[in-house]
Amino acid sequence: MSSSLSSGVQVGSGEQVQAIIDELYRLYPEARYDLDFTTPLELFVATQLAAQCTDERVNAVTKTLFQKYRSAADYAGANQEELEQDIKPTGFYRKKANQLRVSCQYLLDHYGGEVPGTMAELVRIPGIARKTANVILGNAFGVVDGFIVDTHVDRLSKRFGWSKQNDIVKIERDLMALVPREHWLEVAHRIIYHGRAVCNARKPLCAQCTLASYCPSAMLDQ
DNA sequence: CTCCCGATAT
DNA sequence: ATATCAGGAG
């Protein structure tokens, strides 16, 4: 079932997984979550804005947004059109503005305007699914209940041969089984760094990738 | 599966 | 011209 790599290691074996993890830590010792925030609510807002948008653009918007809107009530009571303009550069701005108002109203109705700190509570909030919940839990509360599966983790998991699933939840389950729990958050951050810098969607730079000997998708003849 | 948004890379 | 960008809902 499992195939052998140029390194002689089997795809999906503990040896391959650990080799990739080790190299990711070596490559990106300082990897962290790149959205700027100082409170759980700020992370709650920034993460919703991050859909299909670079972190850089989100940070450019939140720099002033967080000065203007300081509480869940500020977002819930915001004027839709005004909030749209405040977040416009992040894209999907009508949907995101509405989603911020609705999700923050939900925080007011159920949690006194605070962001809850459990997976079960977070995924009940409209606009919050497991990816966003995992980001909030891991980065604002230090709670690691799952594996962040965003567009990069989805893509690299398949390239590494760690999952053949298309359903995000099934990919997350595969990763939780393969990667030791203490590495879930840190490895997710580093997979994302590598996905941006080297293993990008359009034209992965396999020839200069130090993971290539452990990667069944490496295309070294380019 | 499509839609939401527009800038940017290829 | 087309795919992609730290997604989620209908």
Automatic annotation (TrEMBL):
Gene for this chain = nth
Mind listing the UniProt keywords for this protein, alphabetically? 4Fe-4S, DNA damage, DNA repair, DNA-binding, Endonuclease, Glycosidase, Hydrolase, Iron, Iron-sulfur, Lyase, Metal-binding, Nuclease
Occurrences of domain HhH-GPD (ranges) = 49-197
| CDD domains attached to this UniProt entry | ENDO3c
The GO molecular function terms of this record are:
4 iron, 4 sulfur cluster binding; class I DNA-(apurinic or apyrimidinic site) endonuclease activity; DNA binding; DNA N-glycosylase activity; metal ion binding
Domain of life assignment: Bacteria
- The protein's name is Endonuclease III
Which residues belong to the signal peptide in this entry? none
